[in-house]
Amino acid sequence: MVKFYITNLFKSLDLVVILSLLFISSIGLLGVYSATYSKDTSLLFFKQALYILFGWVLILLFSRLNFRVLLEYAPVVYGINLLLLVLVPFVGKTVYGAKRWIDLGPISIQPSEFMKFSLLFLSVYALSRIEKLWSKEFLMLSLAFAIPSVIVLKQPDLGTTITYFIIYASALFFWGLKIRYYILAFVGLIISSPLLWTVLKDYQKERILAVFDPYRDYAGSGYQLIQSVIAVGSGGIFGKGFMKGTQARLLFLPEKHTDFIFSVIAEEMGFLVGFLLISAFFLIIWRAFSYTKRADIKEEVLFLGTFCSLLAFQVFVNFAMTMGLMPIVGMPLPFVSYGGSAVLTFSLLFGISLSIIREIRNKPINFSNG
What total of structural domains would you count in the chain? Predict the structure, then answer.
């Protein structure tokens, strides 16, 4: 009976996505183990392993649930998440000058990370019911994005705030917003860039300038970028060997188990594993996005398209950041960087995506539509 259930479960899922994500999870755990090891296995590794395990439970559970039934709870999920986000300034704990986490004893949760899921879910719920761009419902959805964006920006967390904008812009694109609005927004961004520059904090300006010349402030804003580039470049084709990376082991690279975990992986496992890791991510994105062509329900297209956009953006920014091509922002690599909130957020997104994929795969293909 159990064997039949497991066989039926995986038969309805996309094994390319499942196996690719398993590979990513495994490489991520190896990276976190090495990055946090100090004379003995770190507690952080065990916590990450539990996060990954629980994440997979969520993925398999949500992949079996009905997407459209779950979607009805989107406003409730958003409301609860917004309440947690509002509580952060009052009960949250401060780490490295940023107050983003709520401490729950042995674990901490980051409501701003879960808000990615809540906003994407709410977007699909709202846009499937909105027919006109300039309407009361559209303004309410925009406000639903604006409120958490302002709160998170004040934490401060510019990287997460930018991901909210990506979700918003992507959801509107798959809803059918004309390209001219994106062109106008881009022109407006260029024109207002001098004003936006004055709004940025000093350390944010330094991080941007460090991309162009990291050595202008070697011991400050450029240090992390320089050490990351050294780690990635020194790994060569096959790497220095597991747990033999000098940048990680000799503590040259800060935050190596979170946003800069790819630097550890590239140094110790080399270009080959790094390339396979990047390929696995974009294989998932390509595979999941391909189902939008077979989806005949608006909500399915909205969710899969926006999810793929968010995943592609986070993966691209993290890789580019670790290679010194973009400013340093708080952008974890899904299922690779240490962090329970990020793992569970993307587990929910993957689980619902697989639920949609399962329903699409179970539909008979209509050959009359080409």
Answer: 1
Say if 367 falls within a structural domain: no
Q: What is the pLDDT of residues 308-343, one digit of tens each?
A: 999 999 999 999 988 888 888 878 999 999 989 999
Domain presence at residue 66: yes
d(Cα 367, Cα 199) in Å, to the nearest integer?
Answer: 54
Q: How far is CA 186 from the centre of its chain?
A: 23
Range of the domain at 138: 2-361
- pTM of the predicted model, to two decimals? 0.91
**Length of the chain, please?**
370
Residue 24 falls inside a structural domain: yes
Please, where are the H alpha helices in the chain?
Answer: 2-11, 15-36, 43-63, 67-71, 74-91, 111-127, 136-153, 158-175, 179-199, 202-212, 223-234, 246-249, 261-290, 298-322, 340-362
366 lies in a domain?
no
Distances from the Cα of 361 to the Cα of 225, 292, 293, angstroms: 43, 11, 12
Other Cβ atoms less than 10 A from the Cβ of 215: the count is: 10
pLDDT at 369 over 50: no
Q: What is the Cα 288 distance to its own chain's centre? A: 15
**What's the rounded Cα separation, in Å, for the pair 258 and 32?**
8
Helix (H, G, I), strand (E, B) or coil at 158: helix
Can you give the pLDDT at residue 334?
94
d(CA 171, CA 20): 25
Q: 156 preceded by cis ω (within 30°)?
A: yes
Burial class (CB in 10 A: 0-12, 13-18, 19+), 199: exposed
DSSP per residue over 195-239, as a string? HHHHHS-HHHHHHHHHHH-GGGGTTTTTHHHHHHHHHHHHTTTT-
Contacts of 148 (CB under 8 A, 6+ apart): 81, 82, 85, 112, 115, 119, 164
Residue 206 in this model has a pLDDT that exceeds 60: yes
Q: Is the separation of the CB atoms in 328 and 320 below 8 Å?
A: no
Q: Give pLDDT tens digits for 76-109.
A: 999 999 999 999 888 877 776 677 888 887 778 8
Amino acid (1-letter code) at residue 204: Q
